[in-house]
Amino acid sequence: MYVKFDKEANRVKGLCFHPQRTWLLASFHSGEIVIYDYEAGVMLQKYTDHTVPVRSVDFHPTQPLFCSGSDDNSVKVFNYEKQRCLYTFKEHLDFVRTVQFHHVHPYIVSSSDDMTIRIFNWETRTQVTTIPGHNHYVMSAFFHPTMPWILSASLDDTVRVWDVSALFNNNQPTGIFALTDTVIKYQQEEHISGVNWASWHPNRQLAVSCSDDQTVKIWKINESDMSVIATLRSHSNNVSCAIYHPLVDVVISASEDNTIRLWDSKRFLHLAKYRRSGDRFWILAAHPTLPLFAAGHDSGLTVFRLMRQRPTLDVSGNDIIYYKDNSIKKYNADSQSECTVGATKPRNSGNRASPLDPPPRTFSYNAAQNKLLVGFEDKFELHQLGGVGTSELKVETGCEPIWISRNQFAYLNPDNKAQLNVREASGTTVIKLTIPLTNKLFPASPSHLYLATPDSIILFDVTRRQQVSKRSVGNVRHAYISPDRRKVAFLTKNAVTICSIDLSKASTFHDGASVKSGAWREDFFIYSTKTHIKYFLANGDSGIIRSVGSRVYIASVGEKQVICINTANEVRRLDVDLTECRFKAALAEGNMGKVTSILRTAKLCSESIIDYLQKRGHPEVALLFVQDPEAKFRLALEAGDLKVAVEAAAQINDPVVWESLADEAMLHGLFSVAEVALQRSGNTERLAFFYLISGQADKMNNVKGDESLALQRAIWTNDRNTIGNLLKDAAPPLSTIALRDSLEPENIPEQFREACSTIGKPDLTNHALNNGSSEDWPLLFVSRPTFEINKEASDDEVGAGWDDDDDDDLLLGDEVGKSKARKGENDSDLGDEDGWGLDDIDDLDNELAEAAANSASVYIPPTNGTSPHDEWSEFSNVPGEIAAAGYFGQALDELHSQIALIDAAPLRNAFVTAYIASHASVPTFPSSPSLSVPLGMRFAERNSVPSVPSYIDLLRQKINVGYVEFSKANFAASQEAFLSALQCIPLAVCNTIEEENEVVSHIETCRQYLTGLMLENEMSSENDKQRHLELAAYFTHCQLQQKHVSLTLKKAMTIAFKEKNYQLVLEFGGRLSKIIKLPDKVQKMMAVSQTLSAKQNSPKINYDPRNPFDVCCKSLTPIYRGSQKAICPFCGACYTPANSGTKCTVCQMCQVGANDATGLKLVRPKRNRK
């Protein structure tokens, strides 16, 4: 038995599993009824309609209903979708002990301390019949799974079977005949004390009962007889409950002696015991389709798993070797055939299999020798598989056996997992090696294996007996090597890590769900979770392929199908579409031909794919498939194709678009395009300035613009007459000075004559604008795509007039020789060289030797070396290292390309700090300045890297300040702290991947808190009550610390309650109850809301708690899953697509939606980049 879920609470009296969902219904002695998700370990719903102990609950098999029986003498029916009680039956006169839905008919059977069994119709909401007969408390009553019988147990020491076939045939008898529709079929008094429980076997004519006589009895019941076939004795106190498990052949009993015991239901042997100190067990419930059962005790409840659900398998080529029902089976993926090739040895009960025999933990198949290693917890079996369902078997002591070569395998010592044993399959000699403490072994390349330690994965060379490499990936559960044996995927509980085979490179994806299994297909990894099949690429891309209705474990991946095994050890083939995976893998490899082929044939060119191509830096590829003018214009600018951009801008004809085109054209030096774009935009001032910088004075004067800027233009063109006329009224002295050359001396006013004679007459003619032009100046080289898609043109359509053959004349160096070789030419074809006078070269040997001898005494100056600053900047793409070298411009360029930095003002202090921290000032002579010495150090394979301080402690300090101020509700100070922490990260330098992961996590923390603080600031200034509630609701979805989430939920509850939105009060309260114990005030608020929500409808707002969303950091509105969004490439803040190109309001530095950003580089490269 394994504990799957344990919940500390009050005494649990009733339990029931949902037949389809991962839900467990529990009732408490305190009167509460709670629905738990035992997979997620959380509470989903809570009902407080009862105020006294609730002794029994039951889910309906098909309807969204459950019923309860309580000490308030009532039976209640609830709808868990509407989350309220539908109606109440109050016919019982004393405590209700058990309730149960019939699986077909609309009936509920209940037992009570009023010594009766009653049947109710939950559809008509009436009592159908009352069954008297017992003369003491009726402790349980249950319908038979198939027959029209009811089995009851009572403290009158009897177990009875009632025939209710007349009730089912007559549907609903009424009146005085309602008492004659049930007949007692059997009555047994084998127990010598009160019987606490009796229940049916789910599919056999058997029943089990338990009593205060400390025994459990097995009954055989058929049409003609009821008799005891076994009595089970081991409990030392009253046995409160006993049930059969529908999937595993065991009887489970719970007792007040603090134990749960398991019995073989066929041989009636005691198999296992679970003891909980100080807690009596009261109730049991078995899952109808899974090997799970739950037990309620004095301090809560526990869910147990009877056996391992994960199938044991190994894959070799197209063959899948797996375990099922104590047999070893082989499934061929091509022929879809299955056969049994061996059997495992029983583990516990001698030579007979036990229901609780643990299945094998691992399979390792050697196809060359047709041998299989079957690993258990402390032993392993070596099978020589046969072709007709038989196998030769050897049993050895050890665990985690794997093949490491054709005839050699390794395993761990179960008593000392720091010892690795290696032996040959045909021999007995064991080589013992000392290794780090290891949990699991995985095969690697020949004579190598992976050691999974608690905190890392180690590549170990068995031949050399030494560690080769190590990667910090803790608690690895499974490993899968790619078909080309160049990569390996490691699975942990919630993450997939793809490494190179030597562990030198790694890429990790953290999944919110538990990762179950995986397999490689081509160059991408397919893995499964509880509800989905997903993919992950080595470059970090991931996605969902399809959903699955039940948990499956992937064995192999075909062209269009995934072959997997479910928890019942059955092979399933699921249809999948891997087009998206292949497209992204081809793009990552740079195989553009394959990319365009997929886009053209697979109809994959959606907006998400276009966005993905932009994000990955291939807008030129997306441009070939886009028809929308706005999208085409945007992509053309990113790709640098201004010809297409001009065509798209002409179709859009928007001034903003023309100005964007003008900006890009200026960057390219295409002045003619910029001139036309500015003319079409209507921005006369920018056009005039353009003419100014290009020296076109005539055109600038002809531009009609704002008259208030006429003086500025006159100054630009040195037009002194215009200057003088414009300043005549405003500044007469300046006007006179400007016009003095054109005025006669007598026309100069007397008061200005002295100034005009005193001030010299500068010659301004040399400063006049020359007549320039808008001729293009190609400043920027734009790389063009290496491929083209032309659906109509062919090679035959290219005419001879284009002189394509002349291009060969452009080849240089070795390329000339290669070109000649391709054309079949030879240097001898060039003719004789006699006429060039080259024969004299052979006579220069003596002169060359003499010159070489004389040069030995000539001083040759040494060549310049590489300065540390140049080495830091040239051999690294980490902005922090480049800034430390003092090359701020280069660092800004890197930040622009990596995170689309558009406002560097917040980084000013960080730049200065980075430079100062990596230099020392050395004093020299008194009259000389100090020397600035760069502080470098060796790092990995690099000779010198800047010695910059660690940012980790600084980030932690600032974020902790933000936490404290947030708790104190000093939101302005908290926002300042988080923003300061976020804005110092771009120049951080990390030495390890672990440091980088911590910094990245700090970015996410800062973004979440800054988004929440923006919502809080908006709430404080918002007067619209509905909008105020929406903002509060969005605030609760920010990923904050739990104590801060609880504060947001309390605030949102209060606002929702004031606005009479009781459904949201219950929603927020339910989430709050998962974090903290609800205060009395909050519980009272929820109780009132529960009552009022059934009487009135809550007002609608723009908020759906069940649909995941991100908050647009500009409009502060939700962006629900599936909607398009633009993302800040640095902090990850989300925006609606309309905000693309704007500055991020969270980090206040980067451009939103810059899909060409490559991502921030923080880890120093271990070797020179160039």
From TrEMBL:
Alphabetically sorted, this entry's keywords are: Cytoplasm, ER-Golgi transport, Golgi apparatus, Membrane, Protein transport, Repeat, Transport, WD repeat
Which InterPro entries does the UniProt entry name for this protein? Beta-prop_COPA/B_2nd, Coatomer_alpha_WD-assoc_reg, Coatomer_asu_C, Coatomer_complex_subunit, TPR_COPA_B, WD40/YVTN_repeat-like_dom_sf, WD40_PAC1, WD40_repeat_CS
Q: Which residues form a coiled coil?
A: none
Mind listing the GO molecular function terms for this protein? structural molecule activity
User: Taking every annotated instance into account, which residue ranges of this chain make up the domain Coatomer alpha subunit C-terminal?
Assistant: 791-1163
The reply on keyword Repeat is yes
All copies of domain COPA/B TPR, residue ranges = 590-704
Cellular component terms, GO, for this chain's entry? COPI vesicle coat; Golgi membrane
One Gene Ontology term from the biological process aspect of the record: intracellular protein transport
Q: What superkingdom heads the lineage?
A: Eukaryota
Where is this protein found? Cytoplasm; Golgi apparatus membrane
Q: Which residues form the signal peptide?
A: none
- Placement of WD repeats on the sequence: 47-88, 89-130, 131-165, 188-229, 232-264
- PANTHER family the UniProt entry points to: COATOMER, COATOMER SUBUNIT ALPHA
Q: What does this protein do?
A: The coatomer is a cytosolic protein complex that binds to dilysine motifs and reversibly associates with Golgi non-clathrin-coated vesicles, which further mediate biosynthetic protein transport from the ER, via the Golgi up to the trans Golgi network. Coatomer complex is required for budding from Golgi membranes, and is essential for the retrograde Golgi-to-ER transport of dilysine-tagged proteins.
Question: What name has this protein been given in UniProt?
Answer: Beta'-coat protein
Organism annotation: Tritrichomonas foetus
Cite the source lineage.
Answer: Eukaryota, Metamonada, Parabasalia, Tritrichomonadida, Tritrichomonadidae
